[in-house]
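Question (not urgent): is this output format expected?
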Amino acid sequence: MKLKHIIGILALLVFTVSNASAFTITTVNEPGDVPAGATISIDVTYGDNQITFQDTSSGITGTWLKDFAYNLNIVPSSVDTYEGNTLLTGSFDDYWEPAQSNQVDGFGTFSKVYTLKDNTPARPTKVVIHLPGFTGTIPGNGYDGKEVVAPLEGSNQVAVHLAWGEDGSIKITGGSNGTTEIPEFPTVALPVAAILGLVFIFGRRKNE
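Got this back:
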């Protein structure tokens, strides 16, 4: 393997691995909130000037995203709204509007909160929010369940209101702290670089 090929692989790793982070916010068998045996789960992915919320709940049918919140003072340039794997036609304003309050019950205040319009028949299971100028960092809102505290990084970054059936719903929140993230460049590319370096060294010795 030539050295330029190794450099090319490392450059690809830097580009594809370090540009996104992800975590899952979930609740299991909450008495009075979630049907027995059901798991409410939302996958959150962010980076590349966008945030994605995707419903990955199990043991329950007909769930849909009713509200979403994030702690960034950036107005979306657009929002892709999906039902299942189908991208719905229409603009952001056709489906979503700013909530009357930036307060999400029990989870503190967020910079932006959007709610599904009452007059739309859409039942979104995934939204991709395009945020121009988003650097890939979502600060916490400083809320610990009782009051605003420091550090902000240890508190809620996003919140989702998930609904199902006629009146079933639950609000869940979370952040990347203490959850599984996509590994960033130092934790993935450096070990790979070491392995590729050994391949290069032994390959060069073999050619000599």
